Amino acid sequence: MNNSRDHQLGPFERLALMFGGEGGKGTAYLTSATENYKKYFAELLGTFALVFVGSGCVCADYYLVKSGSQGFGLLGIAIAFGFVVVAVAYSLGYISGAHINPAVTVTMVATKRMTAGVGIMYIFSQVAGATFAGYLLKLLFPEALASVFLGTCVLGSTVTISQAIGMEAVITFLLVFVVFATVIDKRATPALAGLAIGFVVLFGVMVGGAISGGSMNPARVFGPAMASGHFANHYVWWIGPIIGGLLAGFSYDLFFSEKKKELPLNSSSVHKKRVNRVRKSNNGKLGNRRPSLA
């Protein structure tokens, strides 16, 4: 075996060669598993970053206000969420697509752009990353536990459940629609996708912050809620974003996706059709005629 090639192989590839042989089934299985684990870990890491930075900004804002300083306010928190999404999109998007949001993943599965099994693993990774971030925030910002619930979303005063679900559905619709328009659609400019998605998240937090917290993401709420134990009206941030995401995905496919164009007939197929017409018009005599011998 070539020693120089062995030196370039990673641990998974070497293990695959030991059990499956070069080009064997073991190689294929382990290579596939390695690629999947990269995607799942990217989703876990990306969602961790989203919750740690975004919800952490909520916790830090509480600490600043409590100490008498001017906090970030809703605009500062919205900027934090928007820009961390931009960073994650550009750093992890080429690995997993940077869903970092169960609503996006559910829509991908529903529109048949992802298998259900992979989608379930994506959502599990997203929830795990968000939960890890929530418990880390609990360790770093203990005073934000009973006050702002570690940055989890809550309903605004006098806001009804239907209002909150409606707000989450609308802003998530806009988010997923932009994802489809900039990432999924091949006609788009992929270099601008991260910025477009990040700005939609920023605007969504600003618009929905006073109503529902502007989550657009079930995992972003679940992580801090798990760590703080605050699950009041928690279903709002699953129902609203998933409904909005599904509506966006199906609407884009129905009205805006590029339709498959029928290829024009080539000259050979046209010639065959003409010959068939001649044979039929000759009552089949031309088609049944045998070649004469010279």
Q: Layout of helices and strands, plus pairs?
A:
Blueprint: H1 3-8, H2 11-20, H3 25-66, H4 73-96, H5 102-110, H6 116-140, H7 161-184, H8 193-208, H9 218-228, H10 236-255, H11 267-281, H12 285-288
Helix pairs in contact: 2-3, 3-4, 3-6, 3-9, 4-8, 5-6, 5-10, 6-9, 7-8, 7-10
Task: For the structure shown, list the relevant keywords.
single chain; 294 residues; mainly alpha; Glycerol uptake facilitator protein; 12 helices; 0% strand; globular; disordered N terminus; disordered C terminus
Please describe what this structure looks like.
With 294 residues, the chain is mainly α. It has a single domain (25-255), classed as Glycerol uptake facilitator protein (Up-down Bundle), CATH 1.20.1080.10. The protein is 70% helix and 0% strand. It has 12 helices and no strands. The termini are far apart.
Give the number of domains: 1
Secondary structure category = mainly alpha
Order of helices and strands: HHHHHHHHHHHH
Total strand segments? 0
Can you identify the CATH superfamily? Answer: Glycerol uptake facilitator protein
Quickly count the helices: 12
**Low-confidence segments:** 1-7, 15-19, 284-294
Provide a short characterization of the protein structure:
The protein has 294 residues and is an all-alpha fold. It has helices spanning 3-8, 11-20, 25-66, 73-96, 102-110, 116-140, 161-184, 193-208, 218-228, 236-255, 267-281, 285-288.
